[in-house]
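Subject: sequence -> structure tokens, single chain

Hey, anyone have a minute? Need the predicted structure for the following. Not urgent.
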Amino acid sequence: MKTLILILLSMSTNLFAGDYCAGKIIEKNEATIRLYDPQKSVSRQIVILPPTGGENKADRRLAKALCQRGHLVKVVDYPQEVVTAPDFEGHERVTKDILKVFSDFFSREKYPTTIIGASLGGIYAGLIYSLAQGQDPAYEHLRLVDSLVATVAGGPLPSVLATSTQEAVMKTRNERLASGRFSNIEEYRSYLDGLIFTDTMKLLHTNKQVLFYGSTNDTVVPTKTQVTLSSALLGQTFWIKGLGHSGTVAYVYYSKASEISFFIRNLP
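Reply:
Had a minute. Here:
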């Protein structure tokens, strides 16, 4: 009920705000890019990564709200491949494919960037942000990313995959465990850890310009993994109580645009 009231209040505030920040698709290639242009001179941009399932109403709502506060925003709907049970190497391959999409994207961009993501989008946003702070020339195009806003993101990825209650992740995990190859969850997690190298916790770099929203009772991206990631990033962390995974995303994306805007405007 609390979440619903906040969403309705937020929507009514912008009911007559006009369409100058209505998003429009400007590219459909490897990724679909939706632009929210405040029609004013800017010196930085915001890039939003959607969660599992792709761009949704919450992404569009936050993008429009940030645009109405004067920010140039792009929602980048990247391809999402489902990793099947037999394809253990798929997790690493998919991550590298997504990094290539964003390396190509940022090679055409010019503004310093705050990257935003929730859930799966937050996990990938955290990885891109971390790589951007590093010195690996393979990811030089990502260096425009100098700040991060993450909601219910977790790490390391093997721990998320070993404990998440997200439907597709559980299905793959249960099929793998049913094969008899692993005697317990820890053995499964350890095996994944030996296959997944492109992970925020293994490639961690931070300039502490991070705003993190976590959920105290999340099982989709388990709270323990959120604590691990947020602690490593060394930014500002706010814990949302009692709303779970989806409720926390809705609460942040529908009611925290002003707070996120303030964080971005006060970056060094």
